[in-house]
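Notes from the 1:1 (GR / supervisor)

We went over the backlog. Supervisor wanted to see one worked example end to end before approving the batch request, so GR pasted a single chain during the call. The sequence is below; no edits were made to it. Supervisor asked that the structure be written out right there so they could see what the output format looks like.
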Amino acid sequence: MDRRIGGKNVVRPLNSIIETTRYNASDFHTAAWKGSRYGTKQLGLPIQPTTELLFYRADLLAEAGIQVPATAEDILLASKTLHGAYPGVSGIVMNYGRGTPVAHTFVQTLADFGQPIINLPKLVDEFDVGEITGEHFRPMIDTAVGRQTAEYLLALREHSHPESLKCNWDRRIAIFAAGNAAMTYGWSVRAAAFELQQQAPAHGKVDFTVHPPAKGQRPVSPIGGFSLAIPTRLKDDRVQAAWKVMEFLTRPEMMKWYVQNGNLTSPRFSTSADPEVQSFSKLIGRVDAMERRGDIQHWPRPPIPEFASILNILGERIHDMLKGFILRAAVQNSATVAPG
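Structure output shown during the call:
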């Protein structure tokens, strides 16, 4: 998250307000709280974080005798086994649409293989995004892990829904909810498409798990979503009123109300532990457990101004790779220079 647009600070840091009001942030999920920060400055209060998970048709996996995928390799095997095994059902539907959709897919899958998109400092079992300087900005795409990630996405393409190369987040989840794919990666907040829509063919048949990592890596589910912030240009006499509204809208009782009205996400431990919330959807408690284990991280999408530019490049090149354009161009070039 960069709080500058056109070189100007547009979001007001909340540090002084938090300190003055003695605001207690300990009830927020750590990943959601850190995801609303830039450097040492807290810029927002989380209101709708969302975690990318693996959604899978528990009924189809059980009928085929397939265990819940625990690794990326398991996903590849399951998608191959289930692809076409049932009429009109693909093994998996992927977010391979040109531009940001496929760029996000690459970045988040790269994390499953144990590497961030830039050269972030390594901590014990994650990466540090608190202070990114110098060599830590260096892109980490043309690496052995980057190649493994690309090869994995290419392999999944063979067992994915034919519309995957056109999919964005809405299209992907719609195909899965309609019962036309056995698995998909998806943001937790979008589970409402089949969790709350009783007419959806996938309703009542879906289960969830953390982003399965490559063999030997720890699970990492990326976090995204929304936070409330205060514009820098807001007049000082209105800042306190804005803060009170933000504080009210992110209270545990409000988070519970959001869940009960169809928002399948909670950034607060207390809300997630509420029996009424847990009875509304098993997803809430599952994501809360993932947060407690440290499976939810925001380093796969580091808060740097250049992130959008990196996505722009990946969104074109990875899509071309998946469509076979890059390979064909390479073959044509070699044929042109071949002797005789």
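Supervisor's comment: The CA atoms of residues 64 and 298 lie 35 Å apart.
Batch request approved.
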